[in-house]
């Protein structure tokens, strides 16, 4: 996956009256039939009128937040930690479908 695809899949931007909030996907039990997906805010809220490039930068830096993303030792790509099996290979390296539905 390219970084842009990882960002698109595992982060989202939520608009609130207070500002724009970049959130990271947190997945519990990703390898079951019904993984539990929640979203957690990363970093500081951006102003409502933040420029698209600043929103993009915030999403990129979310991938560097080690609470929410870790680097798969095998493919060297960022993934939510729960998708890196035993800390050694991500579900994509393992070829395991993870049943994640984007809302
Ligand atoms: Zn991998």
Blueprint (SSEs and pairs):
Layout: H1 3-10, E1 11-15, E2 20-28, E3 36-41, H2 52-62, E4 70-71, E5 78-79, E6 84-85, E7 89-90, H3 91-94
Antiparallel strand pairs: 1-2, 2-3, 4-5, 6-7
This protein binds zinc ion.
Question: How would you describe what is shown here?
Answer:
It contains three helices and seven strands. The chain starts with a helix and ends in a 9-residue tail after the last helix. The chain is an alpha+beta fold. A hairpin with a 3-residue loop joins strand 6 and strand 7. The protein has one domain (3-94). The longest helix has 11 residues, at 52-62. The chain has a three-stranded antiparallel β-sheet. It is globular, with a radius of gyration of 14 Å. Bound molecules: zinc ion (ZN). Residues 72, 74-75, 77, 89-90, 92-93 line the site of zinc ion. The site of zinc ion has 8 residues, from strand 7 and helix 3.
- Total individual domains: 1
Mean pLDDT level: 92
Report the strand count: 7
Q: Structural class, please?
A: alpha+beta
Q: What proportion of the residues is helical, as a percent range?
A: 10-25%
- What order do the strands of the largest sheet run in, or round the barrel if closed? 1-2-3
Q: Looking at the structure, what is the overall shape?
A: globular
**How many helices does DSSP assign?**
3
Element order: H for helix, E for strand: HEEEHEEEEH
Bound molecules: zinc ion
Share of β-strand residues: 25-35%
Major sheet: 3 strands, antiparallel
Distance between the termini: 20 Å
Unreliable stretches covering 5 or more consecutive residues: none
Rg to the nearest angstrom?
14 Å
């Amino acid at each position: 996956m390219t970084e842009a695809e990882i960002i698109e899949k595992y982060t989202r931007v939520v608009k609130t009256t207070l500002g724009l909030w970049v959130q990271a996907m947190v997945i519990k039990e990703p390898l079951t039939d019904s993984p539990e997906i929640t979203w957690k805010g990363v970093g500081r809220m951006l102003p409502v009128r933040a420029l698209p490039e600043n929103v993009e930068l915030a999403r990129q830096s979310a991938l560097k937040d080690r609470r929410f993303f870790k680097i798969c030792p095998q493919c060297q790509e960022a993934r939510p930690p729960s998708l890196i099996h035993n800390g050694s290979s991500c579900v994509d390296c393992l070829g395991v479908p993870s049943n994640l539905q984007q809302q």
